[in-house]
Amino acid sequence: MKKLELIYEGKAKRVYRTEDEDFYVMEFKDDATAFNGQKRGTIKGKGELNTKISAVFFEILEENGVKTHFERLLSDREMLVKAVKILPLEVIVRNLAAGSMAKRLGLQEGTKLKSPVLEFCYKSDELGDPMINAYHALAMDLATKEEIAFIEETSFKVNEILSQFLIKKNIILVDFKLEFGRFKGEILVADEISPDTCRFWDAKTMEKLDKDRFRRDLGNVEEAYKEILSRIKS
Looking at the structure, do residues 195 and 103 belong to the same domain, yes or no? Predict the structure, then answer.
């Protein structure tokens, strides 16, 4: 598939048109940001690792009946994806208290939640992606009532599928972010699923194997990403 003009560049990816209006080429970058862009840096090889990791997770979801924008890998840093229109709505699913939730609610990091928690954020770099609820999403016309219900149901299904897969690899899925897009009347899981958008902890040692190593200056960031790819492909 021939890559044409750049149509979008974000913090971690570039998206290009192709000669087929139904498909884009998504290219993953090594750039890393945290705290709404306040911290910036580079994680060597991150683009290649996140491309491969996301492809594995998308394939697992597709095999389990969850439709995604993923078509196929094109190179070490590029994948062919359906030309979805991304909804300005981020979904966060949490199984353990960590990050902003632990701080916001005064919970000790690592506290196991009695049931998974789903949160919405309004996608806006200018506003810092503020947390909203379903009523906000409806009032702001970010999604329809039916779309929100589908997104909630699908997000919990993704959580179940990936949690069960990862625990077999001795990885705890602490929390993760999902994005969704519209494509030909359907809502598809889009963007990426990687250590950039998930918190992965080693099930035995509770060692962090995700972007928190960059956020918190823990070191061995590249090694953590490599460890995730190694385990999920084994």
Answer: yes
Q: Does any domain span residue 232?
A: no
Total structural domains within the chain:
2
Helices and strands in the chain, H and E counts:
6, 13
Q: Confirm whether 128 is domain-assigned.
A: yes
Q: For position 40, what pLDDT does the model report?
A: 85
Q: Could you tell me if 94 and 146 lie in one domain? A: yes
Same domain, 64 and 168: no
Query: What CATH number is attached to the domain comprising 22?
Result: 3.30.200.20
Q: Which helix (H) or strand (E) holds 117?
A: strand 112-122
Last residue of a domain, one of 67, 82, 97: 82
Structural domain of 12:
3-82
> Which of 18, 35, 27 has its CA nearest to residue 54?
27
94-103 CB contacts, 8 Å cutoff, 24+ apart? 94/118, 94/119, 94/174, 94/175, 95/159, 95/163, 95/172, 95/173, 95/174, 95/175, 96/172, 96/174, 96/175, 96/201, 98/174, 98/175, 98/199, 99/175, 99/199, 99/212, 101/175
pLDDT at 37: 65
What is the mean pLDDT of each successive set of 10 residues along the chain, which is 234 residues long? Answer: 92 96 97 78 94 98 98 98 98 97 97 98 94 98 97 98 98 98 98 98 98 95 97 95
CA–CA gap between residue 115 and residue 110 (Å, rounded): 14
CB 194 within 8 A of CB 53: yes
pTM score, two decimals?
0.95
